[in-house]
Amino acid sequence: MHELSITQDILKSVLEECGDREVKKITLVIGDMSSILDESVKMYWELLAEGTKAERAELVFKRIEGVFICKKCGEEFPIKHSEFKCPKCGAQSFTIPQRCKSFYIESIDL
To answer: Is 18 within 8 Å of 108 (Cβ atoms)?
Structure first.
């Protein structure tokens, strides 16, 4: 449900940027660990953007793969790794980089 407020913020930012120009495309970058669902954003967008200059804008989603960084050796490996341990040194202590949790508007095409 948090996608509603996120989509409202996206629309507000886009409309402030576009002024009276028609918005053709919006590219959104979403980290896999951000818990934002593309389909929910699309659904809310259709409802919220109706009647605005962004109504017909194409939403493009770019996903950033979730990764772990081993605290012991610095190895970076996909979260999808089945054993949740570093494939290089075997440690089970890791961090998730901020980019995997991020969400932002990359571009607006007018």
So the answer is: yes
Q: How are strands ordered across the β-sheet holding 67-70?
A: 76-78, 67-70, 94-95
- What are the pLDDT tens digits along the chain (110 aa)? 589 999 999 999 999 999 899 999 999 999 999 889 999 999 999 999 999 999 999 999 999 999 999 999 999 999 876 678 899 999 999 999 999 999 999 999 99
Question: How many CA atoms lie less than 13 Å away from 47 in the CB half-sphere?
Answer: 10
> Which stretches within 19-68 are classed as H helix?
38-48
pTM of the model: 0.82
Q: Which domain holds residue 54?
A: 2-64+98-109
Helices 38-48 and 2-18: crossing angle in degrees, nearest 10, is: 60
Question: The domain spanning residue 54 has which CATH number?
Answer: 3.30.2320.50
Count of the separate structural domains present in the chain: 1
